[in-house]
Here is the input.
Amino acid sequence: MAKYICPGCGYQYNEVLGEPREGYVPGTAFSDLPEGFVCPDCAVRAKEDFELVEE
Amino acid sequence: MHQFTVQHPEQGEIIYQDRKRYLWLVSLLYPLIALSGIGLFYLTGNQWVFVVPLVIAYIGISALDWLIGEDRNNPPEEIVPQLEADAYYRWLPILTVPMHLLVLVIFAWFIANHDLGLPAFLMLTLTAGLYSGLGINTAHELGHKKPALERWMARVALAASGYGHFCVEHNRGHHRHVATPEDPASSKMGENIYQFAWAEIPAGFRRGWACEKERMERQGKSVWHPTNEVLQSYALTLVIQGALIVAFGWIMLPFLLLQNFFGWWQLTSANYIEHYGLLRQRKPNGGYEHCQPWHSWNADYLASNLLLFQLERHSDHHAHPTRRYQSLRSFPSLPTLPTGYSGMYALAMVPALWYRVMDKRLLALPHIAGDFDKINIAPGRRAELEARYAGVSVQQPAVQEA
Here is the structure.
């Protein structure tokens, strides 16, 4: 399970926690997020912009 | 005076004193501007004094911008985490929210209990709408934040004008598509504010609803589920404005419809002036480049920025949407409006003047330099606008153009 960070605002997507508020259940792999995924906090960085911070 | 200090490994001790710290308290006093007309009426008995808050909003604030001038002060980046964590700054916009509801109730009560002519009714209703519009700005500041309390207070502030979809629409729609033809909340060159509002206001309702519907569906819930944040704010509007109708009678119906609309008009005015004509370029993969500092119009006037939680430092807001108002920074060489937002709202209502001031300023921006390919242009207007501005020098600094 890995963590990915939004380079714009610092939001971290943690695969263990998912993002239930956005409808991504705990355990959802980053690669399984839709291509239209944008940062849940700032909404100005898209999936392609996120950076892997922790395997 | 409150000081922030931090030990920097190379620069030593950094000390910062926020000169605006206590000036932000004025955000709690703005209801007094809205209520000044009612106060003056009790002093004079003349119904025409109800125009005073409208004059203050459109002309008085602009005069203060001119008198007090610009504020280019930025906090050092090393201090920003302390500023962001300071509860004083955090609570001010939160405490502003009940003021918006209180003022709405006072105006409703006053209108229902006084024998007013049509001009007095209109002036009072527009003033109530103006202040509810300021509530949308308060919601804007709160709705970008991560803590649940602030997001909830944003929904409460939006309820005053029935604009509950705004935060969803703005954060997930406008910020994502800003300065592109796909964004109904980014105005195009050659489009006047009335054409813009006609498309933008209904599109905002639709986009906010669609964004929230997608989120609810991803959660496996119906769009009508009570956790729908747009519905929550609309429900508050229904309760608050329904209670006003029950308490004060059917006169509330035209009052609320017009005050709501004028509140929306304030937000639409902001959207109209913030990105006029600015355009993000396509990347080779077909997507748009990220929003850059030159994709927003800025103004850095102290008076109107205090009124709007530094919304006028708009480039930094788009670069860092979750950054709090006290930390937003001013930068030189950005697209700059000739006056603060209040004055620009008034200017936008006279399209011929707006075009006269803004079109040459837009064409003269260094990243555009007269190139119409780099401008977001109203559909079908390009040839006409190119002909109109053919031969106009774009070499002068933008600041001298208007």
The interface with chain A takes residues 146, 171-172, 175-176, 215-220, 290-291, 318-322 of chain B (CB under 8 Å). The first helix of chain B runs from residue 30 to 44. The beta strands of chain B are 3-8, 12-17. The radius of gyration of chain B is 22 Å.
